[in-house]
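Lecture 7, part 2: worked example. A protein chain together with zinc ion.
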Amino acid sequence: MRSSLSLGRVHGIRIGLHWSLVFIAAFLWWSLGAQLLPSAVPGSSPALDWLTAGLMVVAFYGSLLGHELCHAGVAQHRGIRVRGITLWLIGGVAEMEGDSRSAGEELKIAAAGPAGSLALAVVFWALAELLSRAGASAVAVTAATWLAEANGVLAVFNLVPAFPLDGGRILRALLWKVRGRRQWATAVAARTGQVLGVAMAGVGLVTWLRGSSALGGPWLLIVGGFIISAARAQLQVVRDEAVFDGLRAADIMTPQPFTAPAGASVQSLVDRWVRTCPFSSLPLVDQSGQLVGLVTTPRLQQVPAAWWPVTPATAVSWQAADVVVCQPGDDLAEVVRRLQGARSLRAVVVDGYRPVGIITPTDLNRVAAAHRGIPPAAVRSVPQRSGSAV
Ligand SMILES: [Zn+2]
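Predicted complex, written out as structure tokens:
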């Protein structure tokens, strides 16, 4: 999901709005300003109603952002990088690099969002009480009460066990914890998500056709469709990952990679290594042999030949933080999951700190292709993790 409008960064997390949000925001503003407030507080000034409705819409999307930031905060605290959060038509999506590594981690990340929404519901409810006791305008009390209810609904709806809603992620984490089998738990949660997604879409369609709800029907239809599609993509990921079951990093790595000193220039890399080395990736190491980066042929090709003598290799290399580093005995499926969030798409296998192998998309596709009946698994095939659908 690409943002159409960037709102800046919070703790390094890019916050953006998707253009589709405009429709729901406008509808929400109209329904609050023209319907809810005038009927809840008869005789109030239309100008005040529209102004308050506008503030309510902003606070609602702020609450949605708060929900996503709770997911993102816990994920980052656990070492999972969060690229950004996008608010769109039916809610928010947090793009995380990689998946949870344990059932407990998944449970904490998934539960953080509804917990945040619940906390916001309590805050707005307390605000409504305070405003009421202080004798504030009935419009302000109504607005705070509506925001409390909206956050309460957000918390409860997200707890529906329809993967990839938070409830579905919690179900997956619990199954994973009980049986100790991640892929099985993911498959069960995704299938449950598909069934509930179809049910939601069906109820949404019937409600819409009967015309009994202006927004509820289409909303459920869209959320149901989103859940069906995301659950199907997750099932495909489970099938792709089965290819790597039982394998270790050492089983498929290209062993004994050439390495180059981190202080080398692009010219010396090309002269001494690239023209003689059969591989497209070259780990850069410091004087002690420790990995400091990774140069790939496509990155070198970005530098005009005239600049090769004066361009240091580190200027075009992936930094160590962008490269997945693993041990020879590491579970390959876990390495692949980590690669899905890595910008370099390559893993360097180290023994201690010394590079002893490289795993590239070519290596992974070779293994997948050898697995009968399953198409080569592209490393980028996993959909972004969505923190919430409403
Ligand atoms: Zn959520």
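The pocket of zinc ion is lined by residues 67, 71, 113, 158, 166, 387-388 (CB under 6 Å). DSSP finds twelve helices and twelve strands in the chain. Keep this in mind for problem set question 3.
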